[in-house]
Amino acid sequence: MNKLLTALFALAVACVTSVAHSQVPQAAPKAAVPAPAGAKSIEAKVAMCIGCHGIVGYQASFPEVHKVPMISGQSAKYIVAALGAYKTGDRKHPTMRSIADSLSEQDMNDVAAFYEASGKDAGKTLGDKPNKEPSPQVAALLQKAACVSCHGANFSKPIDPAYPKIAGQHADYMFVALKAYKTEGNAAVGRSNGVMAAIAKQFSNAELKALAGYVSSLDGELKTVPEHKFR
Fold this sequence. Notes:
Elements: H1 2-23, H2 39-53, E1 59-60, E2 66-67, H3 76-88, E3 91-92, H4 94-101, H5 105-118, H6 136-145, H7 148-151, H8 171-182, E4 190-191, H9 194-200, H10 205-216
Antiparallel strand pairs: 1-2, 3-4
Helix pairs in contact: 3-4, 3-5, 8-9, 8-10
């Protein structure tokens, strides 16, 4: 009898202990720490870019035929500012507006950082001044436009990273961009920037083309880097 009572008592204690343990709140599982952006996420974010900006010599046909701008080596802060302007409509361009609309702020920062890094060339050093002197006519235009006050004396070291490097950029692209600052009342074409609009409107299209041609001829840090690793 004593053995039976002892066994029953032990069983009762075990059951109570088991129930009590099951009622103790368990620590919540730790939230998963988001993994840093890896190659695949970057691939997805720049997938819409490489079809134009990752092909050497690629030409767009809107609003006229011109080479798409080189963005490898461009300042990340400027790329973010440009994408933001397309997203808000301050820069009118149907294709770029659609792309910018699909990007979050973090996406823009990641894409911009990728392209800034992809153009870095440790062995390349630019002088503090342009490697080529302008003609007297172009020199007068540059002085009137005061380009160096924002884009730097060599046109590749802007005073603020939010301004673009323009030395060596495609001349036809710069010409189209400059004309866009002059455009008004067009739902699909135009750029809203008070400073650049005031500057561009001082010049004829022929003068803008001359400015773009000279700046394009200079040594710069911009390039097109084919992204074969993403294909």
